[in-house]
């Protein structure tokens, strides 16, 4: 496509007939695609999307943006620094109130990056962009799902701070623990540690039994220490019962780090289960209160003493 043709299309935006203009873009898109003109197709779609965004025509922009990702898939474009630039630029220009097209576009882009990139879970950068966007809209449940596969545990921690701001102080450790377990279920120990440390800076009570379990768990997973892992689960059984899903996550963590078989679970189902379960805000207030019963006297607030030779 020549520069003159692009300029001719762009000049029509001032006329305000956006529907007809969209049809012109789509007609050229189908023509170039059928003719296998990859460069012309990409240039057309990027230019058209950005112009529709400039004029705040977000539904039109979302439609062309979707076509761009389809083009990447159809031409089997590898995910690279060069190819991702268009995705990032377009996503950052979406500033409309209706975010459905924006979210759908990035989810399509994540799918493309998973199929034609090096990370089977999709681009961590894309996950971060989408997670932060969802967080700003207070869609914390979906944001958390994407933060698990992102490259910014610091942003994840800030999102959890915002999400838990209206929860009781004694329930905030549940938010942190769910996020840490999510990271560990996909064997991301590094970011789990970072999120834990960052979260301690904004928590008023950083020494709850559950957070102490998190601390010792992260230390244990640095080593080949399945017996100690099992001891921790037993010692902190009461705290872990505050969320019925924790047992499932810890079974998966044992499988990921120590190859302990997971009962009644297919090799590919755990991610779906985890992402489906990493929802909800704080804990059940009744569960939290139950920790104050007589059985909790056996729970040392500082957790079990872990001798250095046990961690060697």
Automatic annotation (TrEMBL):
Signal peptide: none annotated. Transmembrane segments: none annotated. One of its GO terms (biological process) is protein insertion into ER membrane. Residues 285-312 are annotated as: Disordered. It is found in: Cytoplasm, Cytosol. One of its GO terms (cellular component) is cytosol. It holds the Pfam family GET4. Keywords: Cytoplasm, Transport. Residues 285-296 have a biased composition (Low complexity). InterPro entries: GET4, TPR-like_helical_dom_sf. It comes from the Eukaryota. Belongs to the GET4 family. PANTHER family: GOLGI TO ER TRAFFIC PROTEIN 4 HOMOLOG (PTHR12875). This is DUF410 family protein. It comes from Polysphondylium violaceum.
């Amino acid at each position: 496509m020549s520069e003159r043709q692009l300029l001719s299309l762009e000049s029509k935006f001032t006329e305000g007939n956006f529907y007809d203009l969209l049809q012109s873009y789509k007609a050229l898109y189908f023509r170039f695609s059928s003719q296998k003109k990859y460069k012309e197709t990409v240039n057309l779609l990027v230019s058209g999307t950005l112009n529709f965004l400039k004029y705040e025509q977000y539904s039109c922009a979302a439609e062309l943006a979707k076509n761009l990702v389809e083009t990447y898939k159809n031409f089997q474009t590898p995910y690279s620094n060069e190819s991702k630039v268009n995705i990032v630029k377009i996503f950052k220009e979406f500033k409309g109130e209706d975010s459905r097209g924006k979210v759908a576009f990035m989810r399509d882009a994540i799918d493309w990056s998973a199929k034609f990139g090096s990370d089977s879970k999709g681009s961590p950068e894309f996950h971060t962009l989408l997670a932060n966007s969802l967080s700003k809209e207070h869609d914390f449940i979906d944001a958390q799902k994407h933060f698990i596969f992102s490259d910014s545990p610091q942003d994840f921690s800030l999102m959890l701070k915002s999400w838990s701001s209206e929860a009781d102080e004694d329930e905030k450790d549940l938010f942190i623990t769910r996020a840490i377990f999510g990271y560990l279920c996909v064997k991301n120990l590094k970011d789990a540690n970072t999120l834990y440390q960052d979260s301690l800076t904004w928590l008023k009570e950083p020494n709850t039994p559950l957070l102490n379990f998190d601390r010792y768990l992260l230390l244990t997973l640095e080593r080949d220490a399945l017996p100690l892992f099992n001891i921790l689960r037993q010692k902190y059984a009461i705290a872990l019962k505050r969320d019925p899903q924790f047992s499932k996550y810890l079974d998966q963590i044992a499988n990921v780090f120590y190859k302990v078989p997971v009962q009644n679970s297919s090799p590919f189902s755990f991610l779906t289960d985890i992402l489906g379960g990493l929802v909800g805000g704080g804990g059940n207030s009744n569960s939290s209160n139950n920790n104050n019963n007589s059985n909790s006297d056996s729970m040392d607030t500082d957790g079990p003493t872990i001798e250095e030779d046990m961690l060697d």
